[in-house]
Amino acid sequence: MIIDLNMLFTQLKIKHPQLSVEQYLDLTTVSISGIRLLPRCSLEISPDFLYLCESQHPLSPDSLPEHLLLLCVCRPGQLPVPYPGVIWMETDLEWAVIFNTLQEIYIMFQNWDRSMHDSLIQNLGLNHLIQISEPLLKNPVLIYDLSLKILAHSTAYVAADKIFPYAIQQGHLTSDMVQQFQNEKIFDTLTETGIYISADKRSERYNEIIKLIYINGKPVGYCVLVLVNPSNMKYMRRMFENFFESVQIGLEKMMQSIKTEGFMYEYLLIDLLENDSPEISIVKDRLAYIDLPFASDFYLCALNLTSPGSITIPFLLHQIQQSIPESRVFEYQGQILILIFEQKRLDPFHYMEQFPLIYHTLLYEIHQHNISGGVSRLFHQITELKAAYREAKAALSFLEEESSSRTDLIFFEQIALKFLCRLDTTGSGYSITKHEKLNRILADDAKNHTCCVQILDTYLKTNCQATETARLLHMHRNNVIYHIRKMEARYYLQLDDPEERLKLSLAFYAKNNNGYETISRPAD
To answer: Both 78 and 30 in a single domain?
Structure first.
């Protein structure tokens, strides 16, 4: 932290308003390493400190080293002839009181600096940095990402300001506010100079100091100081610069922490995406180190940023991870992948309706940052991740090629029929919308008031796992096996045949998407 003379004397005037200071140098350009009493020997003097003495000190100004910082205290009416480099202070206070007050102020700034360093070391976050800085800044602070979503803010509420309370309530700036900033050319100024300082008096909002935050040469956000209690502008700017330095370090540490946390599980998940036949035992061993289950209720969501420059990727990864704790979020081939697991709140039969309600924060990010998203079907083993990724990508492809909206969320389940139809390019083979055996099961269900179709559909969706089918349908496992065996015998189903399962699955997709053509039940 840079502690300059202007910071010291601004605080000194607050504590002792009656003081009169005469100086002949720019106090904002002079920083110090401490405050000392002027010794009687000039050999013991260092140019890095501010020295204080009374006017009757035995050392004459001519004998002092060049560039010495000296504050000389004298009684009112006893101001001597000005001397270059000497700051004169007229006061009835004892010079010892002035010295002790300056020491207290200097220690206050040092403690602030130390507190910010401790906060950064302990990774306590941006809000903690703001919290410990508010008593000194005495003005509210807002920290935004590039998309103008709030990352942290002061707890002080500025009711009279047009932007501050609404931004905190909504968590971001509205398009109208952004347009106002653009009209005032604030973003242009920040791009050119890195800092914007408003100086005009406004009725709708306070003036502010805004700095563009750079990390590794790239802009990542904005730091705003709302000047509710503006005093010495040079003083406020120096205080803000000192605070801003810690914010920049804090954001860099946050981004690095996100990367580090993601590395361990990211390597494994990418291996699963790129390996067709992973060794199960090795996968299970690696899962033990990253706190991920091998078997669970999994969904995979793939996101495309239609406007990549609108937000920094690490921030978006962090925000999604925070909003969906039961997930692992990582970047892969230019997309953001979200692996959601152990999600008991989603009913496998109604998850498309439930997903936007449960993950409304994710939907907000999608609309806020111009993102398109595709969601796979439910899968039950982590080794099925690659197949799930193909489904999520297929949903994304459909959304971006055929939908009028490119910033939305679509489920593979919704477009599976059309997607699978694309795969049959030969024009020959099987009719997806007709399946004679399924017709017979439907007809028997209607006649006998049974639910064999639901059992078979669920059984296929769970990759023919009887235990999982029983759990989803609230049945006993043996009961599921009984019904499956009975259907295999009665309708000549060969569920161990991949082609038979595919045909049935396609027919079910057609049925569930209102594209199924019912045929009259053939004669027995």
So the answer is: yes
Separation CA 248–CA 194 (nearest Å)? 13
pLDDT digits (tens, 9 = 90+) for 284-312: 887 877 778 899 889 999 998 766 555 66
Alpha helices in 157-312 (DSSP H): 164-170, 175-183, 186-193, 233-274, 280-290
Q: Is there a domain that residue 523 lies in?
A: no
Do 302 and 332 fall into the same domain?
yes
Instruction: Read off the pLDDT of residues 251-275 as tens digits, 9 standing for 90 and up.
Output: 888 777 666 555 668 888 888 998 8
**Burial annotation 337-349 (CB, 10 A radius, 16+ → b, else e):** bbbbbebeebeeb
Q: How far is it, in rounded angstroms, from Cα 66 to Cα 139?
A: 38
- Ramachandran bin of 67, using left for φ above 0, alpha for ψ from -120 to 50, beta for the remaining angles: left
Burial of 333 (0-12, 13-18, 19+ CB in 10 A): exposed
The answer to whether the Cα torsion of 179, 181, 185, 186 is positive or negative is negative
Q: What's the sign of the alpha-carbon dihedral 247, 160, 138, 188?
A: positive
Residues 399 and 285 in one domain: yes
Round to whole Å and give the CA distance between 128 and 120.
9
Strand partners, 215: 218
Domain range for 233: 123-255
Identify the residue whose tokens are 């079910």: 508
The tally of domains found in the chain comes to 4
Same domain, 341 and 455: no
Residue keyed to tokens 């109604």: 350
End residue of a domain, out of 83, 111, 139: 111
- Same structural domain, 205 and 302: no
The token pair at 457 is 């559909």
Instruction: Assess whether 489 and 399 both reside in one domain.
Output: no
Q: Which H or E run includes 447?
A: helix 436-448
Give this prediction's pTM: 0.59
Report the CATH number that the domain containing residue 490 is assigned in CATH: 1.10.10.2840
**What is the token pair recorded at 248?**
């920049």
